[in-house]
Specification:
By secondary structure, the chain is α/β, with parallel strands linked by helices. It has a domain at 23-149 and 188-236: Decaprenyl diphosphate synthase-like (Undecaprenyl pyrophosphate synthetase, 3-Layer(aba) Sandwich), CATH 3.40.1180.10. It has 7 helices and 6 strands. The chain has helices at residues 31-36, 42-63, 82-105, 121-134, 150-163, 173-178, 225-236, and strands at residues 23-27, 67-74, 108-113, 140-148, 190-193, 212-214. Strands 3-4-2-1-5-6 form a 6-stranded parallel sheet, sandwiched between helices. Helix 2 packs parallel to helix 3 and helix 3 runs parallel beside helix 4 (121-134). The radius of gyration is 18 Å and the shape is globular. Residues 248-254 have low confidence and may be disordered. It binds farnesyl diphosphate. Residues 28-33, 46, 49-50, 53, 72, 77, 88, 91-92, 95, 144, 146, 220 line the site of farnesyl diphosphate (FPP). Farnesyl diphosphate binds at residues 28-33, 46, 49-50, 53, 72, 77, 88, 91-92, 95, 144, 146, 220.
Length: 254
């Protein structure tokens, strides 16, 4: 384990647990601290973060995760220095320019969640083209939350419902879900926030109502395939009750 957080972890068991989460969502935190601990600029941390993302995507495919949602840029990240904002925008552009073919070959379906209209016209075009190219891929759905905020998502959903003339009496949870960016995608089973911080930070606030949360004490660039396995084992040890009581079944939705 790298970074400056000095905790000796327990060994990760061999192999895979039985119940793999269908949907894993990750708050990729700690890039800045990872860079600082090495005397590097913050953007170097974000670049290391992208490299790590490749490994984690690969790990998700190998381990049978079906949906991976990553928090890459929040609606609050506009408060960061302009240089860092520009850097994060060009990272998204680079990911599309350089990685799209390989992601497509490997069966990854790319989706964007968040306010697309806040991005430059060129970036918007690239994101839309990437989504169109990969729309039939089924190996892994990769949701990139970019210019995303959970409260903003709900505001947009309510506005769209009103625009569509939805009658108040017909509003229920299932209808609201249809108006979210994640419509049609199962809620995250597991939400991971790296770096030891223990907050949700406006990420998937509706969808994570019954998610299991996991806060590994490693910075995002160090959250490698072994750490992903550790997260999967941790998840498998949780007793999910969804507000009810333990039924003894492994899949409570079955
Ligand atoms: C949080 O760490 C990280 C971010 C705000 C950006 C995450 C982005 C990447 C890993 C790049 C991948 C991006 C795409 C588009 C696929 P932080 O900067 O808040 O770290 P700190 O808390 O240590 O300062």
């Amino acid at each position: 384990m790298g970074g400056s957080i000095n905790i000796r972890p327990a060994p990760v068991p061999d192999g895979l647990p039985k119940n793999i989460p269908a949907h894993v969502a990750i708050i990729m935190d700690g890039n800045g601290r990872w860079a600082k601990s090495r005397g590097l600029p913050r953007l170097a941390g974000h670049h290391a973060g992208v490299e790590n993302l490749r490994r984690v995507i690969e790990g998700c495919v190998e381990d049978g995760v079906q949906v991976l949602t990553i928090y890459a840029f929040s609606t609050e990240n506009w408060e960061r220095p302009q240089e860092e904002i520009n850097g994060l925008m060009s990272i998204l552009e680079d990911v599309i320019d350089r990685e799209l073919d390989e992601l497509h070959r490997n069966g990854v379906q790319l989706r964007h969640i968040g306010r697309l209209e806040g991005l430059s016209p060129l970036l918007q075009k690239k994101v839309v083209q990437a989504m169109e190219l990969t729309r039939d891929n089924r190996k892994l759905i990769l949701n990139i939350a970019f210019n995303y905020g959970g409260r903003d998502e709900l505001v947009r959903a309510i506005q769209n419902m009103i625009h569509a003339g939805v009658a108040a009496e017909t509003v229920d949870e299932a209808l609201i879900e249809k108006y979210l960016y994640t419509a049609g995608i199962p809620d995250p089973d597991l939400v991971v926030r790296t770096s030891g911080e223990q907050r949700g930070s406006n990420f998937l606030i509706w969808q994570s109502a019954y998610s299991e949360w996991y806060f590994p004490p490693v910075y995002w660039p160090d959250f490698d395939k072994e750490e992903l396995r550790r997260a999967l084992w941790e998840y498998s040890s949780r007793d999910r009750r969804f507000g009810g009581i333990h039924t003894g079944r492994e899949d409570y939705r079955a």
